[in-house]
């Protein structure tokens, strides 16, 4: 939905326009009001405003100066200028150069609605042209290396994508890898020389290493690369189907890996350690291959430099399998931060399912899962300034080790439900306190109150505050302000001798005629009639 800003140094003009035009029906989600050019500039910096309606003759910052500032900083904004007949000749040149449209005062509502409607159509057509297929594809191509890098990084971390979804991504990213065919990994660790470089130089070196690897591998392998969480360069290799491989394709991988080390050392003066893996099906075994490479670097290379290691035959002992669902994204910590309770439950079910159906799982794996879950629970509680024991109680935290996955799930779900109930309760309480603060501030400052002033008082962004208030009360803040002002006006009319214009001024209305109009809409009669009827 669009947003509009109404600007005039005469408040009753702005206020009248804000309520007399059916903005919501016209597709405007928010109507902003400013009573000076400088106030308008402040609002323009805060909100994504699409259309500005402004008077030309304003003190301090005129309408033409305001439009010039808009044209300089927000070229997409459309401007309607309001001008009196006497000012028209003076302002015509500026209007023609800067404004999208102009109207002569006094303004008829239907005339303004027609002009605004045309500008909305123009905005829509401009955005459609901007987001055209051609431009979208150009932007997509520019970001293609980042998208490829991210997708491979997700596969290395164990993310599982449904077959059709993965194939769609591969096709979109122009990656000719085929599911079900074997792949291997070459993991490259840049050594000390590269780690001493600044970020810009390191990026250039990494780009050069990737280019050299492309040249060495591409004749016999499809190659896809990314930078992993350890700052290693990872190359996924799949034998080309259009090339004959003499014997074991792993020989070609080893040969190219040796050449990569030599070329980088000769051309750049820095060393690399390289680990190549055995073969596994794509994409199901990518995560396992990657873990074997990282494990080899940790166990067999360590702080040594310039090492090449082939892990293909490193299978003399049966490895202890890790509990993969614990560590594949999205992590429990991230889902707790996002209050993604359904995702948390799904994650727990995946962990328990792995414990139940995998024969290699032991009691130690159950204990690992419990410790991981407990850490996430403590993290969430402490992020919310609470001790976990205050929320769930010590008996739940002090239970003996679990012997079965079902017992683990039963315990974890009980803790999760208590954490969720606590979070929901805290949210409700905080919103209740917020609404009370907003109402107290409005009641104390009826003579002059604005959304920005209220937002500053409760230390929130105005847009967020408006949404929260509407969500909790079902009304807009402006509706509440108008209601309270009219209720206060009714009280003053009956219980004080103030004149009508004095009541209007007391409530912050600079124009008594505008106040009378609003009161008649509220009470169904004028202030005079209301006072006379009460006497």
UniProtKB/TrEMBL annotation:
It comes from the Bacteria. It is found in: Cytoplasm. Residues 436-533 form the HTH araC/xylS-type domain. The keyword Cytoplasm applies. The modification 4-aspartylphosphate is found at residue 55. Signal peptide: none annotated. Keywords: Cytoplasm, DNA-binding, Phosphoprotein, Transcription, Transcription regulation, Two-component regulatory system. InterPro entries: CheY-like_superfamily, Homeodomain-like_sf, HptR, HTH_AraC, HTH_AraC-typ_CS, Sig_transdc_resp-reg_receiver, Tscrpt_reg_AraC-type_HTH. PROSITE patterns: HTH_ARAC_FAMILY_1, HTH_ARAC_FAMILY_2, RESPONSE_REGULATORY. Pfam families: HTH_18, Response_reg. Residues 3-120 form the Response regulatory domain. PANTHER family: HISTIDINE KINASE-RELATED (PTHR42713), TRANSCRIPTIONAL REGULATORY PROTEIN HPTR (PTHR42713:SF3). This is Response regulator.
